[in-house]
Specification:
The complex is a heterodimer of chains A (172) and B (774). Chain A is 38% helix and 15% strand. Chain A has a five-stranded mixed β-sheet with strand order 2-1-5-3-4, covered by helices on one side. Chain A has two domains: 81 residues, Roll (Ubiquitin-like (UB roll)), CATH 3.10.20.30; 90 residues, [2Fe-2S]-binding domain (DNA polymerase, domain 1, Orthogonal Bundle), CATH 1.10.150.120. Chain B contains 17 helices and 30 strands. Classes of the chains: A alpha+beta (172), B alpha+beta (774).
Chain lengths: 172, 774
C-alpha cells in the first residue's frame, strides 16, 4: 500500500481545488473524509446501490468505484453543489413536493442520477427515467414518487421549451 | 380540521434533498477511532484460544477486546428485549457465522481492518443446527444449553434443555369437533425463507466515554430508550450516565429496532481514554450480522362447510429464530395469535414454535410474522374456494371478521372495515374480468389477499411528549419517536398543529436523544402515529389548558367560552375578543406588573388503554391488542410461460387506517410497502448453506429497482379508531403483508400452478409449469 500522496487539481462544486490523495483513496472517501461532503453515502462500497452517485464531468458515477486521482483536471459536482444557499435545484424542490424521499439515504444519489439524465436529455420518457435510476436502490418509496418527481421537472422543461419557442415565434 | 388530513410537505424534506442531514456515519467526533470486528467463520464452535498479541502490536491500534475477557465479569452480560439470551461478543462459543469474536479500535479503518486479520482464534468445531425442524429433535445439539437460566418476560414460554425459546399455544373451541363437522378438509405446507431488511444505510454507531464515566452512544437506531436500557444492563451503567442519540435513520424496517452493534464498541471505548470509537457495518455485515427475517415452516389444516364457512383451523408454525431470539420470540407469538388471518374461526389450535438454530439472528421485520403466515393462509383459502366451486371473493366475505365478530384470540370487535376494503379493491381493479395477455407466450392472472395486523407490543408500553411554547408563539415539540422515513416527524407535527391551531411551520420537532427528549418505548409495531400521536395530542391539550386558564383572567371571560384559533386565544362568542398566544408564552403579566404561572410547557403521556395479557394455556383474551388494521390488496400479473418470469402489472390496495393524517405521505408509505412485498414475493431470499449466508451483496441478493414498480392504486377507508389521535390507527407494516399471497394466487389464476415456497422465482415457476404440462 503506497503512502505517497499525489497532487490533483479539479473543480469541486464550481470551486477550483488542489488536493493531495493516496493512489488507493476512492472519490467517495475523499469527498466524505477530506472535504466533509457527506451527502454522498456509502451503501455498499461496490457500485451496487448508487447511494454515492456523483457528477463526474456531468456524468453520473458511483463515487465508490472511482479513484480520487482519476478526477485530476475534471469537474465534480456533489449533491451539496446543486443548491445555492437556500435556493434549491428544481429537482430537489420536486423531490420534496412529490414526497419522493422517505429515509433520505438514497436521495442524494437518486437526485444526482436524475440530474445527469436531465443534463443529457431534458425531456426523458418514463422508461428513460426508470433506466437512468435503475442503479439507484431505494428501499422506502417503491420508486413511484421518485419517477413522478423527475417526470414533473422534465414536463416543466418541456413546457418551458415550448413557451420559449412560442416567444421566439412572437418576436419574429 | 385544518392540518390533520392535509398533504403537508415533509418537515425533514429540505435537509434530505440537499444531502445535509447528518446520519451516524456522517458524524466525526474529534480524534475518533475506527473499529473493526473479528467474526466467526463457523456456525457452531467452542472458542479455545484467542491470540491478540500481534494485533495489539500494530502501530495505530488503540484497543483490542475479546468476548472471552468478559466471561463472568460485570461487563457483557446477556441482554435482550423479551428474552435475555444475547451477548454482543461471543464469550465461550460462537453460534453463527459472522458472530463478533473480537474487536479493534485504531487510528484508521485500514489499520483496524489489518489488526483484525492478525487476531488468531482457535476453535473446536461443534455439531451445528441448521434446520429449524431438526432443531426440535430430542438429540439435536443445543444452541443455548443454559436457556434455563435466562431471564425472560413471563408472556413467553422457553423450554429449557431444548432449542425451543418460545412455544406459543392458541386453543380456541374444539378443533377436532370442527373437523368432524367439516365437508372438506385441506392441508398444506408452506415455506418462507430468511430475507434481509436491506435498508440503504448500513448500521452505524459511535461510543464515547467522558472523564466522569458518562457514556454517549450515537446509533442509527429505531429505539433510543430500549437501546439505553439494554446497554445499561449489559455494561452495568446507570441510566443517568448513559445517553443514546439517534440523529437520523436511513431506513429501518425493524432491522434497527433493539440493539445490534452498539455493545461491540462500548468495551473498546472503555479503553481509549475518552476517544470516541465508530463502527459502521459493511453491506456484507448487514446481510450476515444484523437482524434477518426469520424463516417459517408452516403446516396448515383447514376444515370448511360446503358453503365455504371455515369451521376449524389447525396450524403448526416452526420458526427459524437463529442464534439469538431475544426479539424473535415475540414474532412467533404474533404469528401464532394471528394464525387464522382476518377471518372468524370458532375452533382453532395453533402451535407456534421458535427454534434456536446456528443461523443469522432472526429479528423484527416489517410485518412481524404476518407476511410469513399469510402466504399460506390466503393460498389455502383460494385452494378451498376452487375445490368447493365458490367465488374467491365470496369465501372471503363469508369468513371475514366483521363488527361484532370474534378474533382468533376471542376478542370481540366493535368495528371492522375489512369488507369495505375488499369491496373497494374488487371494484377498483374489476377483479373478475380476465385481461388479455400481451403475447401468446404470456399469461395474465389476478389474485387477492385480505390481511390484518395489530401492533405487536407488550400491554403497557409508554410514550411521552413535551411541547414548549416560545415567546413568539412558535413551539418546540420533543419526542423520541424516530422518523426513519415513514414520516412521523411530519405527522406528529401536524397533530400538534391541529390542537394548538398554529401552522405546522411554526413547530419544530426534536427527536432521538435520551438526555433531552422524553421516553418512548420504541419506534416499531406500526405504533407511532397512534401511541406517540396520542402523547403529542395530550401534551398540546395540556398547553391549551394552560393558555385558556391564563387567557380567561386577561380577557375576562370563562375558559369554556374560549378557544385556540390561528395563534390566538379567541372568544367563541365575541370573536374580536382575542389574545395572541405569544403574549402568554412566558406566563401572564397582570395590570400591576406582577407575573403568574411562568412558561407554557405541555406534558403528554400515553399507554394504550386496557390491554391485558392473554391466558397462558389458551392464548385467549378479551383485549389482547390495542387494535387491528384491516385491508385487502389485489394484484394483476403477467407470467412468461417460457422463462417463468412473473411481472406484477398492477396493485390495488385498500386499508382501513381510521384517519389519514397526511394523504401524500401515507400513499408513499403504502407504495413502498407494496414494492418491498413484491421483492420478497418474487426474488428475495437469503441463501444459507451449512450456516453460511452465500448471497451477501446486492449483486447476489436483489432488491426491487425502479423497473419492478407496478402501477399502484392506493385507497383508504376511514372508520375512526376511537382511542386514536383524530381517529388514526396504523399502516406501516400491514401494507407489505398481502403482496406475496396475492401474487401466489394470481400465479394460479394465470397458469394453474401453486408454489408453496417463497419466493416465486422464475426458476421455480418454470419448473412447476413444466411439471404441470407433463
Amino acid at each position: 500500500m503506497s503512502k505517497v500522496k499525489h497532487k490533483i487539481s479539479f473543480v469541486l462544486n464550481y470551486e477550483k481545488t488542489e488536493h493531495y490523495v493516496k493512489p488507493n483513496t476512492t472519490l467517495l472517501n475523499m469527498l466524505r473524509e477530506d472535504f466533509d461532503l457527506t451527502g454522498a453515502k456509502e451503501g455498499c462500497g461496490a457500485g451496487e446501490c448508487g447511494a454515492c452517485t456523483t457528477l463526474f464531468n456531468n456524468k453520473a458515477v458511483n463515487a465508490c468505484l472511482v479513484l480520487a486521482i482519476e478526477v485530476d483536471k475534471a469537474e465534480i459536482i456533489t449533491i451539496e453543489g446543486l443548491s445555492k444557499g437556500r435556493e434549491l435545484d428544481e429537482l430537489q424542490e420536486s423531490f420534496i413536493d412529490n414526497a419522493a424521499l422517505q429515509c433520505g439515504y438514497c436521495t442524494p444519489g437518486m437526485i444526482m442520477s436524475a440530474k445527469a439524465l436531465l443534463n443529457r436529455n431534458s425531456k426523458p420518457t418514463e422508461n428513460e427515467i426508470k433506466e437512468a435510476i435503475s442503479g439507484n436502490l431505494c428501499r422506502c418509496t417503491g420508486y413511484k414518487k421518485i419517477v413522478e418527481a423527475i417526470s414533473s421537472v422534465a414536463t416543466r422543461n418541456d413546457k418551458k421549451e415550448s413557451m420559449n419557442a412560442q416567444k421566439g415565434g412572437d418576436t419574429e | 380540521m385544518k392540518y390533520v388530513g392535509e398533504s403537508f410537505k415533509r418537515v425533514d424534506g429540505v435537509k434530505k434533498a440537499t444531502g445535509t442531514l447528518k446520519y451516524v456515519d456522517d458524524l466525526k467526533p474529534t480524534r475518533f477511532l475506527h473499529a473493526s470486528v473479528k467474526r466467526s467463520p463457523h456456525a457452531h464452535a467452542r472458542i479455545l484460544n484467542i491470540n491478540v498479541n500481534e494485533a495489539k502490536k500494530l502501530k495505530g491500534v488503540k484497543a483490542v477486546i475479546t468476548g472471552r475477557e468478559f466471561s463472568g465479569a460485570k461487563c457483557c452480560k446477556r441482554v435482550g428485549l423479551y428474552l435475555e439470551d444475547k451477548t454482543f461478543l461471543a464469550v465461550e462459543k460462537v453460534i453463527y457465522v459472522g458472530e463478533a469474536v473480537a474487536a479493534v479500535a485504531a487510528e484508521t479503518k485500514e489499520i483496524a481492518d489489518e489488526a483484525v486479520k492478525l487476531i488468531e482464534v482457535e476453535y473446536e468445531i461443534l455439531p451445528k443446527v441448521i434446520n429449524a425442524r431438526k432443531a426440535l429433535d430430542k438429540d439435536a445439539p443445543l444452541v443455548h444449553p443454559n436457556l434455563a437460566n435466562y431471564k425472560y418476560a413471563p408472556i413467553f414460554f422457553p423450554e429449557p434443555n431444548t432449542n425451543i425459546s418460545n412455544h406459543f399455544k392458541l386453543r380456541k373451541g374444539d378443533v377436532e369437533k370442527g373437523f368432524e363437522e367439516a365437508d372438506l378438509i385441506v392441508e398444506n405446507e408452506f415455506f418462507v425463507p430468511h430475507i434481509q431488511h436491506a435498508p440503504i444505510e448500513n448500521h452505524s454507531a459511535i461510543a464515547q466515554i467522558d472523564a466522569d464515566g458518562a457514556l454517549t452512544v450515537w446509533a442509527s437506531c429505531q429505539s433510543p430508550y430500549a437501546v439505553r436500557q439494554a446497554l445499561s444492563v449489559a455494561f452495568d451503567i446507570p441510566l443517568n450516565k448513559l445517553r443514546v442519540i439517534s440523529p437520523a435513520i436511513g431506513g429501518g424496517f425493524g432491522s434497527k429496532a433493539g440493539t445490534t452493534l452498539e455493545g461491540i464498541i462500548i468495551p473498546l471505548a472503555m479503553r481509549t481514554n475518552g476517544r470516541a470509537v465508530k463502527l459502521t457495518y459493511s453491506r456484507e455485515d448487514e446481510f450476515v450480522s444484523s437482524f434477518v427475517r426469520q424463516a417459517l415452516f408452516a403446516k396448515m389444516k383447514t376444515g370448511v362447510r360446503k358453503d365455504g364457512k371455515i369451521l376449524a383451523m389447525k396450524n403448526e408454525f416452526i420458526w427459524d429464530g437463529g442464534a439469538f431470539t431475544e426479539y424473535g420470540v415475540n414474532i412467533v407469538k404474533a404469528g401464532g395469535y394471528a394464525s387464522t388471518g382476518p377471518y372468524e374461526v370458532g375452533n382453532v389450535w395453533t402451535d407456534s414454535i421458535c427454534a434456536y438454530t446456528n443461523h443469522p439472528v432472526g429479528g423484527p421485520y416489517r410485518g412481524f410474522g404476518m407476511s410469513e403466515i399469510q402466504f399460506g393462509i390466503e393460498q389455502n383459502l383460494d385452494i378451498i374456494a376452487d375445490k368447493l366451486g365458490i367465488d374467491k371473493i365470496e369465501i372471503r366475505r363469508t369468513n371475514a371478521l366483521k363488527a361484532g365478530s370474534y378474533t382468533s384470540m376471542g376478542e370481540k370487535l366493535d368495528m371492522c372495515g375489512l369488507i369495505d376494503c375488499l369491496d373497494v379493491v374488487v371494484n377498483e381493479m374489476d377483479f373478475n374480468k380476465k385481461e388479455k395477455s400481451s403475447s401468446p407466450n404470456k399469461a395474465r392472472g389476478k389474485g387477492l389477499a385480505c390481511v390484518f395486523k395489530a401492533p405487536s407490543m407488550p400491554t403497557n408500553v409508554a410514550s411521552s411528549a413535551i411541547i414548549k411554547l416560545n415567546e413568539d408563539g412558535t413551539a418546540h415539540l420533543l419526542v423520541t419517536a424516530q422518523d426513519m422515513g415513514q414520516g412521523s416527524d411530519t405527522v406528529l407535527t401536524q397533530i400538534a398543529a391541529e390542537v394548538l391551531s398554529i401552522h405546522p411551520d411554526k413547530i419544530t420537532i426534536k427527536t432521538g436523544d435520551t438526555d433531552h427528549t422524553p421516553y418512548e418505548w420504541q419506534t416499531v409495531a406500526s405504533r407511532t402515529t397512534y401511541c406517540a400521536g396520542n402523547s403529542v395530542k395530550s401534551a398540546c391539550e395540556d398547553v391549551k389548558k394552560q393558555l385558556l386558564e391564563l387567557a380567561q383572567i386577561k380577557i375576562g371571560m370563562y375558559k369554556r367560552d374560549l378557544e385556540l384559533r390561528d395563534g390566538y386565544v379567541v372568544s367563541k362568542i365575541y370573536p374580536d375578543k382575542k389574545l395572541p398566544i405569544s403574549e402568554l408564552a412566558l406566563g401572564l403579566t397582570l395590570e400591576d406588573g406582577s407575573g403568574i404561572h411562568g412558561p407554557i410547557i405541555g406534558r403528554g403521556v400515553f399507554i394504550p388503554p386496557n390491554i391485558r395479557n392473554v391466558d397462558k394455556e389458551t392464548g385467549l383474551g378479551e383485549k389482547p391488542v390495542v387494535f387491528w388494521t384491516f385491508g385487502s390488496q389485489g394484484v394483476e400479473i403477467e407470467v412468461d410461460i417460457e422463462t417463468g418470469q412473473i411481472r406484477v402489472l398492477e396493485v390495488v390496495s385498500c386499508f382501513d387506517v381510521g384517519k389519514v393524517v397526511n394523504p401524500q405521505l401515507i400513499e408513499g408509505q403504502v407504495e413502498g410497502g407494496i414494492v418491498q412485498g413484491i421483492g420478497s414475493a418474487l426474488f428475495e431470499e437469503l441463501i444459507i448453506e451449512g450456516g453460511e449466508v452465500k448471497n451477501k451483496s446486492f449483486v447476489d441478493y436483489k432488491i426491487p429497482t425502479a423497473d419492478d414498480m407496478p402501477k399502484m392504486t392506493i385507497r383508504f377507508v376511514e372508520n375512526p379508531e376511537e382511542t386514536g389521535p383524530f381517529g388514526a390507527r396504523a399502516i406501516a407494516e400491514v401494507c407489505m403483508v398481502a403482496a406475496a399471497p396475492a401474487i401466489a394466487n394470481a400465479l394460479y389464476d394465470a397458469v394453474g400452478i401453486r408454489i408453496n415456497t417463497m419466493p416465486l422465482t422464475a426458476e421455480r415457476v418454470l419448473k412447476a409449469i413444466k411439471e404441470k404440462n407433463k
